[in-house]
Amino acid sequence: MPQAAALQPDQPWDRSAQVEALKEADVDVLVIGGGASGAGVLLDALSRGLSAALVDRQDFMAGTSSRSTKLIHGGVRYLEQAFKTLDYGKYNLVREALAERKRMLQMAPHLAWPLTLVTPVKSLIGLPYYRMGLGLYDFLSGSERLGKSRIESKSELKRACPSLNIRPLKGGVSYMDGQFDDARFGIAMVRSAIEQGGYALNHTSVESLIETDGRIAGAHCKDLIGGQSLTIKAKAVVNCTGPWTDHLRFMANPGAKPVMTVSSGIHLLIDQNLLPEGRGILIPETDDGRVLFMLPWLGKTLVGTTDDAAELQDDPTASDKEIDYIIKHMNEWLDKPISRDDISATFSGLRPLVSDPDEQSTSGLSRDHVILSDKGMISLTGGKWTTWRRMAEDCMDKVVKDAGLKAGPCRTHNARLPGANGDETVARQALAELPEDIADYLWQAYGDRAHLVLRQGSSERLVEGAPYIQAELNWALNFEGACKPDDVLKRRLRVGMLDEQAASRIRDRLIPLLQAA
Questions:
Q1: Which positions fall inside the FAD dependent oxidoreductase domain (predicted)?
Q2: How far apart are CA 48 and CA 380, in angstroms?
Q3: Fold of the domain built from segment(s) 15-65+184-259+355-403
Q4: Which is the most buried residue in 18, 182, 434, 510, by most CB within 10 A?
Q5: What are phi and psi of 498, to 5 degrees?
């Protein structure tokens, strides 16, 4: 089966045509799971000249990939562990992640940007300790360095976060990492794949796997929107289902050794402007040994996270206990405490924790992702958002070798995502007549395609005082594959992750559009 027809930026994403094409299909690579890993594998396969399709039982990025801490990081904690244990594997992880951090920032500058993080320090010995460690982080960054770490005075800390209780502090240390809009970055990845001739269907379940001569060779699927049955045969099947990895592995091989456990991490969105300078705060260790963040994010303050054992579920939510935990531990560092009344939204994500059943070395893994094979089905699991591209490359290298595919080399190293191919100054000219907050928001969300969004309808605000506009609803449904209210509100506009009350008001205007689609 050849690749689908490539789309131009102003061409709609015709989901029904993709469903029709996949009713009886034969592709080189079938990817199951539409988070960061799955979308990355789809892009990588297409870059090698292969035909590829992706299916996901929920929406693209609906799980862990849209519920992260929104950081693109090299792994400061990995570096600390490498230093303490002389673990060369973790040292390499940091270097690799720093290179991938730079690639993400270049791939979509409107969706990913540098961020200064400040670490408050309570002891005099802590200042040189953190400064030395972050200085090494600077050194390892090399040409990928975003800025230089430095010691901050108590007054500088107070300016960064006026609510911070500086009385017990000796100062702080600042350094730079990256931040991004995780869901929109992921949706841009999938849209890019569609434009390159790939197939991608959200809300499409895998009912059973196809096995030929002892090898997994495709899947029987069901479109949960229209009810159609799909038979997708493939030379290679890749499992990118994150926390659900073992579930699909057991479908392929009931005797497979389980490798997955999950924990939950929650985040709070705070209405208060706790970080007026746009710099984040990293609390390196609470009294129970956890790391906490306060980060500026899309006009709110993002606070998190927890790390507790969890059960598998499609849509985890933050419990009262978890919310109280975050509030309690953040207030230990603030002299202007936050309360539940300050919370505009919460979200919870499942963190996939993986062990490699074949790993024998006591020196640790050379990567923080694991690639497994069950009857020829390749499972890619573990890892983190920052290294999605390298994970996909490693995975597809194995897929090509194991399946004997005729493929070119990976060509994602210098890729650009939709919205990142034009000049910002020129692109913003099309937004010049809009209110400043709407223009800034549209640029951040859509980059140089913001003018295409405006063509889809009115620039009327959907909610008074917020930058979301009517045209975005049509764009999400027709150009970004959205099918259900939460697809639009949580992963296209992001209002559902930022302000639950505003999302509820927009939902009423969205329902008629979905019914007419």
A1: 28-386
A2: 18
A3: FAD/NAD(P)-binding domain (3.50.50)
A4: 182
A5: -110, -40
